[in-house]
Design goal:
This protein has 98 residues and is mainly α. 85% of the residues lie in helices and 0% in strands. Helix 1 (7-42) packs antiparallel against helix 2 (51-97).
Length: 98
């Protein structure tokens, strides 16, 4: 079995995991946003920031940062794969020259 043959199922699995993770994160973010809006309508208005407001904003920020972190990690992984492919190509070129 060649090395490249096992890469296709790995890519399909990776794409399925990416879609699931991004979808779950976005659903969670939208749900928290809707819940925050509903909570703000139900509680009496006050002139100061309540702990409930802080809690909801912290939850929304946590989910947003998780989605952002996931995007950065995926970007860095792709950049690393491209760099690795370029290095292996350079090694191959050097071997053919020698």
């Amino acid at each position: 079995m060649s090395r490249g043959g096992g890469k296709i199922p790995h890519l399909i699995l990776l794409l399925l995991l990416l879609q699931g993770r991004v979808g779950m994160g976005m659903t969670t973010l939208l749900t928290l946003t809707a819940m925050f809006g509903a909570v703000r309508q139900e509680v009496p208005r006050v002139s100061y920031v309540s702990f409930l407001d802080l809690w909801m904003v912290a939850c929304i920020l946590f989910v947003f940062v998780c989605i952002l972190e996931f995007g950065i990690v995926c970007f860095m992984m792709r950049a690393g794969e491209k760099r690795g492919a370029e290095k292996s190509k350079e090694r191959l070129d050097l071997r053919t020259v020698i």
